[in-house]
Design a protein that fits this description.
Elements lengths: L6 H15 L5 E6 L10 E6 L5 E8 L5 H11 L5 E4 L5 H10 L2 E3 L5 E5 L2 E5 L3 H4 L16 H12 L4 E2 L1 H8 L3 H13 L3 E4 L2 E4 L2 H10 L6 E6 L5 H7 L9 E4 H8 L8 E5 L2 H8 L2 E2 L6 E5 L10 E3 L2 E3 L2 H11 L1 H12 L7
Parallel strand pairs: 3-4, 4-5, 13-15
Antiparallel strand pairs: 1-2, 2-3, 5-6, 6-7, 8-10, 9-10, 11-14, 11-15, 12-13, 16-17
Length: about 350
C-alpha cells in the first residue's frame, strides 16, 4: 500500500520543482510555518524577478483536494493577492475552479499553473498519463460522463431547476438506487450539485455542461446518406408525415435552426436506432462521404432522453444538442454559443 503523502513531501516537491521550472533569472524561496496573522496557511513563497521585482504568495498543502472542499475554502484562498495550492492530484474540475478564482496550483511530478506577479508558468501533460494507477474508489463512479452516470447528468441538465430524490432519478433513468446515489456523490464531490436529504439540486449547471462537452466522444456509428428531396428543409417537413420506423431525434445545426437560427445548415443529422428502416422511409442512398443526411446510431440510448417536438419534428434535448454542436467545432460550435446567448439552453 502506498504511503500517504505528507506536508513535508509536498513542500520538498514544490521547492525542487520550482528550481527546475523557473525561467532564467528568477529566484524562489519558500518559508514554512503558519504566521500568527494568518494561521490557515502553510507557508509563504517569495519570488524575485530578474528585474529585482518581488512577489509573494501564500501556500496551502493538501494531502487530498476535492472540488467541493475547494469551493468552501476559496473565499479565504482569494483574500491575498496570490495563493498556491499544492496537492498530489488536482482534478480537471478543481483546476477549473482554481483558474477561475485566480489561484495557482502545483502537482508534484505532474502539472502546474503558477501565475504570481510577473511570473506565469504552466504545464499540462496528457490526461491518460495523469490517471492514478491505484484501485478505484467504490464510493464514486469512475466517469460521470459515460454509461449510466451520463443519463443522470443529462436529466439534471434537462430539468436543471428541479430537486431530485435518489428514487425519482432512479425511476427516470432506470438505474439502481445505489448507482444513482454514487453518481450524486461523485457530482457533489466535484462541486456540481449539493445534496440534502431527499432533495439533490444542481448548483453549477454551466460548468457541468461544459465538462460534459469536453469529455471523450461516445462510440456512435454515423452513416452518410443522400436524400433526393429538393432541400434539407423539405426533408424535415417530410419526417412528421411518416410512420417513424424507430425512435429518432434530430441534432446538430438542423436542430439548432429550430431553436435559434444562426446560419444555413448543409445537412440533417439525426439519432436513430433502425438505420435501414429510415433509409427506406426517407428514400436515402448510402455514400462514403459528403451526404446531406447523417443517420447516427448512438452507443448511448440516453440521447433520446428529454427529446421534444418543434414544428412537428422531434429534437434531441437542449443539453445534448449543445454538446453535439460544441464537439463538431467550427460553425456548429458558434451556433452552440449563439443558442446559449439567446437563452435557449435553459428556457423558463
Amino acid at each position: 500500500m502506498a504511503q500517504p503523502v505528507t506536508e513535508r513531501d509536498l513542500r520538498q516537491s514544490l521547492e525542487a520543482g520550482l528550481q527546475e521550472t523557473l525561467p532564467t533569472g528568477w529566484q524562489a524561496t519558500f518559508s514554512p510555518g503558519r504566521p500568527s496573522d494568518n494561521p490557515e496557511i502553510d507557508g509563504v513563497l517569495d519570488l524575485v524577478a530578474p528585474t529585482g521585482e518581488r512577489s509573494q504568495a501564500r501556500v496551502e498543502f493538501k494531502a487530498r483536494l476535492e472540488p467541493a472542499q475547494l469551493v468552501r475554502e476559496l473565499p479565504w484562498l482569494t483574500k491575498s493577492a496570490a495563493s498556491v495550492v499544492v496537492a498530489p492530484q488536482i482534478s480537471a474540475r478543481a483546476r477549473s475552479l482554481l483558474k477561475e478564482a485566480g489561484v495557482s496550483w502545483y502537482e508534484p511530478d505532474g502539472d502546474y499553473r503558477i501565475a504570481i506577479g510577473g511570473l506565469f508558468i504552466e504545464r499540462v501533460i496528457n490526461q491518460s498519463k495523469r490517471r492514478s494507477a491505484g484501485a478505484p474508489d467504490t464510493r464514486f463512479v469512475a466517469d460521470p460522463f459515460a454509461g449510466g452516470a451520463l443519463r443522470v447528468v443529462r436529466w439534471l441538465l434537462i430539468d436543471s431547476g428541479r430537486s431530485w430524490s435518489i428514487a425519482d432519478m432512479a425511476d427516470r433513468t432506470g438505474l439502481t438506487l445505489g448507482f444513482v446515489s454514487r453518481t450524486f456523490k461523485t457530482l457533489a464531490r466535484d462541486a456540481y450539485l449539493e445534496r440534502v436529504r431527499g432533495a439533490t439540486r444542481l448548483t453549477d449547471r454551466g460548468a457541468l455542461l461544459d465538462a460534459w462537452a469536453a469529455s471523450p466522444l461516445p462510440k456512435d456509428s454515423a452513416f452518410e446518406r443522400v436524400a433526393t428531396v429538393e432541400s434539407r428543409e423539405a426533408l424535415l417537413r417530410m419526417i412528421p408525415t411518416l410512420t417513424a420506423p424507430s425512435p429518432y431525434a434530430v441534432t446538430a445545426e438542423a436542430a439548432a435552426d429550430k431553436l435559434a437560427p444562426f446560419a444555413r445548415f448543409s445537412r440533417v443529422e439525426m439519432y436513430v436506432t433502425d438505420v435501414a428502416g429510415w433509409d427506406r422511409a426517407l428514400g436515402l442512398t448510402s455514400v462514403p462521404r459528403g451526404g446531406n443526411v447523417v443517420l447516427i446510431k448512438p452507443a448511448d440510448s440516453g440521447v433520446f432522453d428529454g427529446s421534444f417536438e418543434r414544428d412537428g419534428v422531434l429534437l434531441t434535448s437542449r443539453p445534448q444538442l449543445y454538446v453535439d454542436l460544441v464537439r463538431r467545432g467550427g460553425a456548429a460550435a458558434e451556433a452552440a454559443a449563439f443558442m446559449r446567448e439567446r437563452g435557449e439552453l435553459w428556457p423558463q
